[in-house]
Design a protein that fits this description.
- By secondary structure, this protein is mostly helical.
- Helices cover 73% and strands 0% of the residues.
- The chain has 10 helices and no strands.
- It is globular and about 45 Å long.
Length: 196
């Protein structure tokens, strides 16, 4: 039965992320039906091997959006996931994450592709229709992003803006960097739905 399965899943997550759930996980435990749906959305957006953006690029974008939205829990968790994916991806450019960590408003320091991932993400985050149209065209024409990659940037940015607001709105963003790093590494290893 779905309810029993969901209860076991949430209990496993609580035990996984320590005896007291932190950040968004606290919301997922308190509201398991929503927690399951939101975890499934994150799994679909971030872990799938459908092509387009690499897992490293997706997690770095999630960290960037979370940093710009001032969601420390999400920023540090996704930064840890990006760092974990960077270590596994021999083709990944470490400058992408480095710029996000050090100069969150300076995407022009990056290679063209990553610059336009962040510029499109920022336009979507700001939710300005004119900027989004311009950034989308620039990402395609100048940045060389495919339609699939543009779709992923728009979806990931939109979803993480929602996740960040969920953490802020429910006042569950207070946690330690150690917790964020541990959560990030577990999810990088096992995915959002199978981190236990």
């Amino acid at each position: 039965n779905f309810s029993t399965w969901l209860d076991k899943r949430c209990l496993r997550r609580v035990l996984l992320f320590s005896m007291e759930p932190k950040g968004i996980v606290k919301n997922f435990v308190a509201y398991p039906e929503h927690g399951h749906a939101l975890s499934l959305l994150a799994e679909t957006l971030m872990v799938t091997d459908e092509g387009g953006l690499s897992r490293y690029e997706r997690e770095t974008l999630a960290a960037y959006i979370s940093k710009r939205n001032r969601c420390d829990f999400c920023y540090h968790s996704h930064r840890a996931m990006a760092e974990s994916n960077l270590a596994r991806d021999t083709n990944a450019d470490p400058k992408f994450l480095d710029v996000v960590i050090r100069f969150s408003r300076r995407p022009e320091l990056l290679e063209t592709r990553h610059e336009y991932i962040l510029k499109l993400g920022e336009a979507v985050r700001e939710n300005d229709a004119y900027k989004i149209v311009d950034a989308r065209l620039d990402a395609e024409i100048i940045g060389g992003l495919t339609e699939q990659e543009i779709h992923q940037v728009v979806l990931i940015t939109s979803a993480f803006s929602m996740y960040n607001r969920y953490v802020h709105g429910m006042d569950t963003g207070t946690t330690t960097l150690v917790d964020c790093g541990a959560i990030g590494e577990r999810i990088a290893d096992h995915g959002y739905m199978n981190a236990s």
